[in-house]
């Protein structure tokens, strides 16, 4: 997937896109596999390459899921938690079908931001 097509990264220079792509790791998810859980430490952000990923919260009793949104190819997950510098994910994410995401590690992402200002932000 061309990162330049992702709205969050559209304004980056070609060399910045190349550096970001070098840090991204592809991860395959089986249907029903969790990408992250609410309350887990934020490890990075994710770009959906193929498939569908739902982002949800559990009700106060922890029984019923409240689906916040479903994201498909080209969409970014967990960018709000990353940019707001939250220590944990505010919701959970699960593959609704066989999916693939690009995982961009938080530490490396911010290192690139610091090396290549200014960052356009969300």
The gist of it:
By secondary structure, the chain is α+β, with helices and mostly antiparallel strands.
What is the CATH topology?
Jelly Rolls
Shape: globular
- CATH A-level architecture: Sandwich
Distance between the termini: 19 Å
Mean pLDDT, all residues: 88
Task: Give the helix proportion (percent range).
Answer: 10-25%
Radius of gyration: 14 Å
Number of domain units? 1
Quantity of strands, as a count: 8
What does this structure look like?
The protein is α+β, with helices and mostly antiparallel strands and 122 residues long. It has one domain: Jelly Rolls (Sandwich), CATH 2.60.120.10. Helices cover 20% and strands 34% of the residues. A hairpin with a 6-residue loop joins strand 4 (53-58) and strand 5 (65-71). The mean pLDDT is 88.
Please write out the topology.
Layout: H1 14-23, E1 25-29, E2 34-36, E3 44-50, E4 53-58, E5 65-71, E6 76-77, H2 79-83, E7 92-95, E8 99-105, H3 106-115
Antiparallel strand pairs: 1-8, 2-7, 3-6, 3-8, 4-5, 4-7
Key features of this structure:
globular, Jelly Rolls, 122 residues
